[in-house]
Amino acid sequence: MTVSYLRKATVQNIPAVSKIIDSAKDFLKAQGIDQWQDGYPAQSDLETDVKNQINYVLIVNGQIAGTAALANHDANYDVITGGNWQGPANAKYTAIHRIAMSPDFRGQHLSEKMISGLFTLSNQLGYQQVRIDTHPDNKLMQHLITKSGFVYCGKVLMDKDPNEVRLAYQFFLS
To answer: Which of 48, 72, 133, 144 qualifies as a FRET site for 116, CA 20 to 30 Å off?
Structure first.
């Protein structure tokens, strides 16, 4: 029987999280996707996530299988083009970032389980909606996002850089 659960990452987990992120960078590069190819997310980003207690790891049979950050706001989402966020303009939300699965666990639909766990956490923290974005060329992530129930809302820019366009999605918790 497979036992899995989501928990906050600890400082001791940073090497494993970093290894998963580096593997995801290689995976994206092999697909010709330039997402995460410029040094982001860096080790310092991962350390900050853990320090701020927003990094979560998916544990499967005692091993770290995946990682994701769950923030409570993203300034990059303040401006959206080609569409709009649904609901009140000042709505509180969580944002899923830096989601990645270990190559040892890819293909087992565990990313869906991780997103489901992040939905539960968001709900428990009192949020009614969750947002996420991905690179326009990252078709696998787009599939995962829409399969998980997110609805496409428009495009956002990372750090106001017109070369860093991302597709933005939203999910409402009931």
So the answer is: 48
